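Ticket #4471: structure export looks truncated?
Reporter: QA, pipeline team
Priority: medium

Steps to reproduce: submit the single chain below to the structure queue and open the exported record.
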Amino acid sequence: MTFLRALLGMSGIISYILRRVLASIPVLFMIVLVSFLMIRAIPGGPFVASGQRAQTAEVIAAMQKYYGLDRPLLLNLPGSSPDWQILHYVDEPISERVEVVSLKPEMREAIQQLADNIRTTSASPNNARPSDQAAQRITFYAEQGVTRAEMPALLDDLRMLIGENTDGEIANAIDAYKGTDFAKLPVTPTIRTTTRSVLYSDLFQSQFGNYLFNLLRLDFGPSLGVTNRGRLVGDIIASKLPISMALGVMAVFTAIITGVPLGVMAAVNHNRPADHIAMFFAVVGRAVPNIVIGPVLIIVFAVQLKLFPVVNPYAWIAGPQANPGTYFSAAFLPVVTLAMGMAAGIARLTRASLLQVLNQDYIRTARAKGLTERTVIYGHGLRNSLIPVVTILGPLLAAVLTGTFVVELVFAIPGLGDTFVTSVTTRDYNLLVGVTVLYSVFLVGANILVDVLYTWLDPRIQFRS
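Actual output as written to the record:
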């Protein structure tokens, strides 16, 4: 019976989570729509600049056409084009920033000569050879460059073609890289452009329609800002988000283990010196902004006492796996800065909630039974008093996971918060909407998690299947 009861309880929770997820879909759609329209209502644009960076009207129009900003904003109605049709495939260009290998002269000459021969003697589709795909890849490598990860495939393609072309230059080019560690090859940053066939609807051949269809494929599009132009927004988020998430998780954890005991101490010692001292620190932590706390901690603990580094952005990029000591020493001050305000709010909320719970009838009953004060407070009172605290953790956790601009700016942390604020000044439409959607997803997920935690904190709350 116990197993059956647990199974029914799990089915109720799963059903509740699925209902919440389905109910959040129209909410997320409205967030995407409103964010998309409001961001594009900002005066100026990603290609409009002043001073020495100012572009001519012709250049701005060409860039808007290249990135699809010349299309209708919401709908592309019939009659706008003689070739209008409901559905069709479009070759969509994709620009990405990569690091291509600086090839040795013999390899560069070999693939360039092969690419020239392939262009002049390309087989027709009816007479396609098995090596045609390898030939197409070699042509692409000759035009766009080859990355370290693509070097083994390049050598395999050359070996495949060596039977058809007995020129010794190919064999010499392959031998030049025999036993080479591809991870140590010198590289040069560049931008490669490829194409992919995407099914489109002419009715939705608009800016919002294309963005929404790409978003359903988890494609946030290319960045339009001057600093990251052409780089995929998904790649930017993937490189910045783990840094902000690590900072946020450590800060929230520090705030919980600091704020909850502080609030409990204040509630247990109500109107005593310990209560006043705890609330004094809570008020100070809540009132003083991060932009003041951060520099003060740097001056005291980094400059004067020299206990921690002032800033170390490379430690955040490398992560804790490279050097845990360096990583956590660089993370200590920003985590404390970010956690102080949150810990103060949690402490005040815990104190107020626990004071209310300690006056309930069941607490007096527990004391009348002869239970120790420690058991009464931590076993009966604290658990119910944490429900308001858990409620605020949902939006709090979503906010810190997507980056906090002030702390990242003060401590030179290359996270998502700084990137998001920079994208506002550069009118980077795609990056702004992408981070907004990401924050919304985190917020919805955190609120669902909070509702599930209610059942653990208060057994009276149950999810019926």
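Status: closed, not a bug. The export was complete when the record was re-opened. Leaving a note from the reviewer for reference: Residues 2-40 form the longest helix (39 residues).
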